[in-house]
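Trying the structure run again after the queue cleared.
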Amino acid sequence: MNSGNKNLTRDSTLNYPIITFSKLVASDVLVRRGKTANKQQHFDAAIAWLKLAHDKAGQRGVSYGYSVKGGWRPPYRETTGYIAVTFFNLAELKRDEEFARRAYAMCDWELDVQNDDGSISNPHFYPDQGIVFDTGQVLFGLVRAYEESQDGRYLDAARRAGQWLVDVSDDRQRWTRCTHKGIPHVYNSRVAWALLRLNQVDPQDQWVEVARANLDFAVEQQTQGWFDQCAFEEGVAPFTHTIAYAIRGLYESSQLIGEQSYLDAAQTVAKSCIAKMQDSGFIPGQIGIDGSTVDNYCCLTGNCQLAIVWGKMHKLTGDTAYQEAAVSALHYVMSRQLLDTNNPNIRGAIKGSFPIWGPYSRLTYPNWPTKFFVDAMIECWEWL
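Done. Tokens:
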């Protein structure tokens, strides 16, 4: 579930971690706002870092990311699945087949690590069982690989993943088991979206029925402009990362099946997030069900994800408040992205938190903040 810092491996060729750690801490303490370059430089540096993360994992899966205290980590199944989608998009945008080659390599690796029952496990937390969220995120990559190639291997793997997601749902067709901490999560709306993507290439009523059941659950958890049960664990204010996951799943699903209640729920929480953003683009890293905030750090991942949904909502509605929020959130992230370092392990990457010792992915540059930064830059390019 994109948390934890286990299985760290030190970079054996470059003695950067300790030096980087001290410099980054000093920088985050002393520098109130970093410098930004032109948008192309930020975009290109982020893409280069994602390619490096793929290289560090042998050009199969994508490394979980880089820890300033431990170096590069092993490949991560969950996020490799949706990073493949970003690379397919880059192949089209840049007309560069290298990105497509890398995307297929990622998806082929997912075929190798897929469980016999169709699920995807998370070796960090649940090595012996499939996890709903991880399986859903890999499903995105499998569906896109099939769309691009018409290779039946990807469709077969996608069907098996979808069938597992159906089979592990409860008697109300909701995901209340095989989940992180064994509890239901509103952010599994993003898994519902993945099932609806599968339905686009393999129409089946069961995909839609289970997706709807979990999207309805997400809507039911909305109160006071926020979502209950949206954190990794009970009784904790969720990161903006998981809040944005929930919003995106509802929004994208509403566009695929034309359900207004999903769009309404997504927009309500998206607007609540705008109200919490400072003029600088800083968004508190955690926001509780009552709107209370943890203000001493920013979850940069959440900033990037929220910029994506705000960008999409602006294009749908024409509401300039969404556009302005997206630009502000991205400029804040850009100001925290290091472009002038000679350390290739962190140049262009987006850290989990600012400051870097914040609770979300502490002291780490995970792969997914940079993935979502690239996606957000594509979404909002014309306004930056």
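The CA atoms of residues 2 and 367 lie 10 Å apart. Worth checking whether this holds up in the mutant runs.
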